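Read as amino acids, tokens; as here:

___
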Amino acid sequence: MSASWVLETPVRVGGEDCPRCLDSALHGLRTSPGVSAVERDSQGRILVRYDPDRVTREELQRIVGAAPEGMEHRVVPVRGMDCPDCAATIEAVLNRTPGIRFASLNYAAQRIFLEYDSSQITLPGIERVIRRLGYRVPDREDPAGERLFDLQHLEVRLVLVCGLLLALGGGAWVTLEPVARSPFLLWTAAALVGVWTPARRAWGALRAGQVDMNCLMVLAVFGALALGETAEAATVVFLFSFGEMLEGFAARRSHRAVELLLEQRPEVARVEREGVLLETPARDVAVGEVVSIRPGELIPLDGRVIQGRSTVDQASMTGESIPVEKGPGEEVLAGTLNQGGALKVEVRAPYEASTLARVLQVVEQAQMRKGDQQRFVDAFAARYTPAVVLGAILVAALGPLLSGGAFSDWIYRALVLLVIACPCALVISTPVAVVSALTGALRQGILIKGGVYLERLARARVFALDKTGTLTRGSLQVVSLHPLGGLSSEELLALAAAAEAHSEHPLGLAVVRHALGKGVQFEAPEEFQARPGQGTWARLEGATLEVGRPELFADLLEPATRQQIEVFRDQGKTVVVVVREAEVVGLVAFADAPRSEAAAALEELRSLGQRLVLVTGDHPRAAASLASRLGIQEVHAGLMPEGKLALLQRLEAEGLPVVMVGDGINDTPALAAATVGISLGAAGSAVALETADISLMGDDLRGLPAALRLARRARSVILENIVFALGLKAVFLGLALTGNAGMWMAIAADTGASLLVTLNGLRLVGARKRAGTEPVHDHDHESGSAHEAEENHGCSCGGH
């Protein structure tokens, strides 16, 4: 018998979890002997199901450990980074700063994740370190960050002055006598003004023991001035600074969808308190309070409508293009737009635990995770720049000795190589494309938790799909009750509802819903345990109750009962057995229907070359019936959780990357074991949002082929960017060594390449909305014909 207990997560990040510490804790728990399942709820708690005969609660607590006293975690925005080298310098300096345990900066997202000991260094102290390097740490709300020419910042003004002086120098060259000194003075001034910002950052990098592209650029500019090439020095520094400013702006645009989500986060709510309507900060509203929402206003908190009817635009959360009707008893989400009428909503989750807050947290964490391609590019760039700098030194020193020619000519070629040594286009090629793809996915209601999962999805060959709540609507209905042992149908239903009173499984929810709908009274059990893949166990008034699959109680079933189970299954129904004190007291049969868009979504996956596999704990006949209707050729039914794991491992052992698709409730082990785990309905389920690598915020299965197409497109864009950046570098290396490339040509090519790979990546932000986002109406959703009730069936029975 397994036990259950709830462990409070020991690491908190201003109300949010630290991704590194949490990942480490979850990995330690999931790999511990005796642990059968690890899940998180909407309050940030970790629910661990374990075998007390193999591991104790105290041992599990030691695995997780306690957060070191004073350890803090923050995600901080950084501005003024106009190249990936800037980000690498900041990251390296912070990781060597006493008191900072870990720092990871994502250039495309313009965010840095910090883990630090507040007893050694404070957040303002970290911000001072960043500012000393020449960068800005704005407030979290930074609307100016989206403007290209923000004149309040010195570096922007310097670039514009540099460009003006460069233009005046060109004009003077054309209009004045060639011997006049004015053009050269203007170009020198332009170079000195333009080099100020790179020089300041280069000095900060050198003080920290780093040699970045700012150092190379300063050396190239002053070298050109020393050779008398004032026009070239001014042109190079202007193109460099202006191009970097454009790149930084474009990179911030890739983050725009997340900024829009922040804008969808209302800070104020109108709350009814003692009969008076008060405006109060949304974060101060307690669970259970009632908020009033007028037409045209954003909904401030997750809740349930208790009065009024309206249409709600959920596009920002689920990607649905058509507003959804909402009335009493229906759930609404923070950040969605109330369009039609006034609503009164009972708050169901605090501000920090709203769906919108969790999505923002997951997105922020996703942008901190680097994929394999990005790590490869970073490693290559780290070796490329020193190699080219060494080559430039050798060219300057050995060129005149080996090939003859003027020493100044070879110095100039070496300066051109220094400019070419800047790896901006290469380093930015991957992160901008990844962040753009994550942003484009978010606009479609697809939440991808990092570039690594985007890469894995692009390689997928097999889609393994759960049945209930995934391929079916998940709105299971009790359609038949078969009491035994002299019980009435009402008594059987009351016992089953009591056993399932605390269950989150679709079957358990259906039983409780049916009992409430029939007005059948039932008691909550004194004890309750959910048994993954088996069912539920409860103790009611001293008697044990069990509900589960017929196969689990084979020794208790009479021949007549077995025959009735087969009758139900022949009708396509899912059956569970109710047992009291080791005696079978009845059968409960359920029916469900496939999602209306399921067939179209699966057909599109097939057209994309995917092998489709139905993976379910349901009876083979029920599974085969659904598979036949949806065109799935491969069916694996009657699987316990360990059976699903074994199947996924076998497929992956054959070299087939597997995507597991489930509802995130009873599929956690399979989702974790697959190459990529995808959950549905994350906008309404904290569990679904937490358990998978990719979450569809809505319930539309057409998000699966949309996500696959986007992942493949992102892979193509990344490869295009890498090949283009490397190819251009190779060409200009050859031109520089043969004396056929000038400094301005090299910097123009480098800046142009950086802009092109950035713009190419930004195409993913505007990824086409998936076809058919309009809702497909499920007719006869609740009742349907008697024939449909018997033909549309079944649950995956992962927990029953």
